[in-house]
């Protein structure tokens, strides 16, 4: 019985030592995420494309019907529509493409991707992959729905005063535009 107990203790110690060693090894070999913050209008230069968020606005449900009258979201429960206007600029003479699905809007307690149906209604192009000719610039409206059910009751009343960030992440770097 003492031998079994001693073997069990040795096995537990062995597993603990290996686990701690592996944990340290993983954390020291992994790349560190760099977080870069920007203000509205400030440019993010990455390779051939420069990105900036030029405008941010929150629209109440009643105001959404004026700019998107045919959307079925107008009949949904209470929501606010966050509109972010971004500018994409091709810095090269060659054709380049960028994917917009990497842009996420978030606050401290909420995060969401943009709504594709509304995106297609607001912009002249429907795809999420934007092709830019050499030195071309395009402005894009990214719509993010913020629904009442996603927030605690006491926070929904202050939705207009919340701080929001547009996140664009390219591993290991995280770019954050603060509104």
Taken as a percent bin, the fraction of beta residues is 35-45%
Low-confidence stretches: none
- Separation, N- and C-terminal Cα atoms: 66 Å
Across the major sheet, the strand order is 1-11-10-6-7
State the helicity in percent bands. 25-40%
Q: How many E strands?
A: 11
Principal-axis shape equals extended
Rounded Rg = 23 Å
Category by helix and strand content: alpha+beta
Give the helix tally: 4
Topology pattern, helix = H, strand = E: HEEEHEEEEHEEHEE
Main sheet: strands, sense, barrel = 5 strands, mixed
Q: Could you tell me the mean pLDDT?
A: 86
For this entry, give a set of tags:
single chain; 179 residues; alpha+beta; five-stranded mixed β-sheet; four-stranded antiparallel β-sheet; 4 helices; 26% helix; extended
Describe, in plain words, how this protein is organized in 3D.
The protein has a 5-stranded mixed β-sheet, with no helix packed on it. The protein has helices at 2-29, 61-67, 116-122, 153-156; strands at residues 34-39, 44-46, 49-60, 79-90, 96-99, 103-106, 111-113, 129-132, 137-147, 165-170, 173-178. The N and C termini lie far apart (66 Å). The protein is built from 4 helices and 11 strands; from the N terminus they run αβββαββββαββαββ. By secondary structure, it is an alpha+beta fold. Strand 2 (44-46) and strand 3 (49-60) form a beta hairpin. The longest helix is centred in the first third of the chain and has 28 residues, at 2-29. The model has no long low-confidence stretch (mean pLDDT 86).
